[in-house]
Amino acid sequence: MGVQPVRDNPQLPMPIQIFESWMFCKPEAGFTELEKKLKSFSQKSAVLKEVLLEFKENLRFELENDTGDLSLDPDTANPYLVLSEDKRSVRLRSAPQELPANPKRFDYSFCVLAAEGFVAGRHYWEVEVGDGESWVLGAARESVRRKEKIDFAPEEGIWAVGLNWKGKNWDQYQAFTSPETPLSLCERPRKIGVYLDYEGGWVAFYNADNMAPIFTFTAAFTERIFPFFWLFYVGSSLSLCN
């Protein structure tokens, strides 16, 4: 028994009549051409995605990766910060430790620097931020203030990004320009890659899992630059990746 035209099936509900009419209509030439173009675009997008991923991986390996050689400097750590035994992780505690006075120590802000600083070359390191709710990381010049409150800004000698700890939007990532620059990230990064080009005058940040760019500062460096870390919540931590 052949399929009857819609007009010969008045008993069918109207939505079914419309559906049958659509099913047995011959596709228009324009629609078929559009379908071909969409398929071609999808294939090209897949190829482009593979090329982009390969480029990002090559970028990661071409950078001089200093992460394995870095450690945190206990002489700079605020008394509320506890370093791991291998000096590659830092955690914020609820009470200060009894530590000897040191001109290098951050007495007011919950900051710590890496033990290694740079006066030339290109350098790259990665930091595990995990699910941390409030943190700042980046690079700081050697003369950054340590005995009083500091602002995270290039004028203070700090080039950094972080997860916002103030205001109503607790998930706001930002670059600490003057004023701050809100960042719209496609996904929540668990590892941040930091790239310092001393002669080029760059500090660039990436999502280290996929090398998606986050933000880039430009600067003219004139003194030693150190990896920089800050925490806000008790129990929160940051770790240098292996």
TrEMBL record:
This is Tripartite motif-containing protein 7-like protein. Residues 50-242 form the B30.2/SPRY domain. PROSITE patterns: B302_SPRY. It comes from the Eukaryota. It comes from Amazona aestiva. Gene3D superfamilies: 2.60.120.920. The lineage of its organism: Eukaryota, Metazoa, Chordata, Craniata, Vertebrata. Pfam families: PRY, SPRY. SMART domains: PRY (SM00589), SPRY (SM00449).
